Amino acid sequence: MSIAHGTNARGDAIGVNRALTLRTGVMVSLTLVILAAIASLVLVQGIERQNADVEHSYEVRSQARELTVALGEAQSSQRGYVLTGDQSYFEPYRRATAAVQTRLATLAALTSDNEAQAAKIAGIAAGIGTATAALQRTMDLAAERPEEARKLVQSGGEVQLVGELRRSLEQFTAEESKVLHDRTRAVSQWGRWLVSAIVASLAGAAVLAYVLFARTQQQVGALSKTQSLLLGENEILDARVRERTQDLEEARQHAEHERQRVEALLQDASHRIGNSLATVSSLLGLQLLRSNSSEVRAALESARSRVHAIAAAHRRLRLGEDLETASAEDFLGAVLEDLATTIPSADRINLTGHFDPIVIRARDATTLGILLSELVTNAIKHAFPGGSGGAIEVQLTRVDGVPTLLVRDNGAGLPTGAAQADDGLGAVIVRQLANQFDGVPRYENPETGGLLVSVPLPGLDGKKPS
Fold first, then answer.
1. Which of 30, 288, 419, 450 is most buried (most C-beta within 10 Å)?
2. Which residues contact 184 (CB under 8 A, 6 or more apart)?
3. Which CATH class is domain 10-225?
4. What's the pTM?
5. What is the pLDDT of residue 441?
């Protein structure tokens, strides 16, 4: 009896130790899963903050580059006007100087919360004020004493002054590029940490599943030794399996819900941006109604239509399953549909489109939609003078393997001997937007009449021109 009693005592001790080990494994695994989930949430919030900083740095860098371009255009137009006396240089000069002030104000607003950046922009603004004043003085002098103005321009003083400003802007842009690079690396690092947290969570779940499986095996072994309680124990086991299966299904549904929530948040953010831009468009429209100057009204109407096009592009953007790409066919078709319903001349112009099923990066979609809107708007404005009717056909297709945007109309076409469209704001915007995809717009009068604008976009799918 003592030997049997000792054997039973050892068996009970082994059972207690095994149960304690299993319980400890479950607690450790659950703790690891919870900690990994908390870390994932913290990392996601950090990535969102880093993404916001990256977007801000990108905008500051872009505005600095645009300011450099506008300053160069102002100087070249001023020199062309003074040296040649050609009045056609005056309007580009006026637009460029206005763009300089606009870009400078935008940069000042973007850097107002950064003391170091604000100080640099303030210094650059002072230099630009001096340079633009010097350019304007020379322009005024050219109207009265052309020879004296030409000698002043040929002396190179203004070139040196503007050159120093452009170098300052290029240095500022380079610094912002470095900041953008550092922030991008930080986002990547946060991403790696997030992956590590997810891996840790999966590891904890795997350990937990293994521990639960081991525990189930132990229970099955006990049931085989206790035949009289087999039915009841089987029912208990089935209940536990169903409970855990339900928990796993709920976890899967929760994960799917979170993915859908993230997608909805991204779509909502894009829609909110579109609504905000639509509000800006409405404000411009109100200002337009209050203006008595036809020139100001034309400028406000042009700005309002472009802001409306950007807003429509944001609202129409639909991301793919990976949340990083979009279908050019669906997106551009929606943008063209918006244009067909909003242009004032829809009753006299037949607007059609055909787009190949090309997958594009989501960050390029809005720019592409704005480029299409600008080309169609330009065609409506210039191809059908005097309220005449016609047709405009838009295509996005691959020409020799390169994605190419084609806009064809049957209107007036380019004047005889003209090699390209004029240097109006619309043409400048088209040229700058196409340049973002390493493309250059081409204008030609087909034999069938009208005008064909083709814009190769090699950078649309990440390819550079050969």
1. 450
2. 54
3. mainly alpha
4. 0.42
5. 92
